[in-house]
Amino acid sequence: MNVALIAHDRKKDTIINFAIAYKHILEHHHITATGTTGRLIQEATGLPIHRVQSGPLGGDQQIGAEIAQNNMDLVIFLRDPLTAQPHEPDILALLRLCDVYKIPVATNIATAEILIRAMEKGEFHWREIVKER
């Protein structure tokens, strides 16, 4: 599966700890991450990460393009809901694309854990059906 990992600045430690805890699952999938998030996860876990631009520099849009091309299966985007983001329109566009293309998206750690555990159990077979369309 193709998994995107994104985190706002105040959520970087959380996503790093998430990647460390679930490295045994993530290592079996193709991981794409925005700039700094990808670098930090790669340094902490040794996982191979395809890095795109930082979110504010177009990384959210790059991941959105992968979704629109049906090349992404899961998005974990740990957002900071209490801090204004200068690229909020890009964030909303990414979330909208997840809805349009039926891509599971987690915006907090609780949902991220539910999705990663479902992925571990192989409970994303429905994605193959969606991809065939």
From TrEMBL:
Its EC number is 4.2.3.3. Residues 1-133 form the MGS-like domain. HAMAP family: Methylglyoxal_synth. It comes from Anaerosolibacter carboniphilus. Transmembrane segments: none annotated. It catalyses: dihydroxyacetone phosphate = methylglyoxal + phosphate. The active site is at D60. One of its GO terms (biological process) is methylglyoxal biosynthetic process. GO terms for molecular function: methylglyoxal synthase activity. Catalyzes the formation of methylglyoxal from dihydroxyacetone phosphate. Keywords: Lyase. Signal peptide: none annotated. The keyword Nucleotide-binding does not apply. One of its GO terms (cellular component) is cytosol. Belongs to the methylglyoxal synthase family. This is Methylglyoxal synthase. Substrate binds at H8, K12, T34, G35, T36, T37, S54, G55, H87.
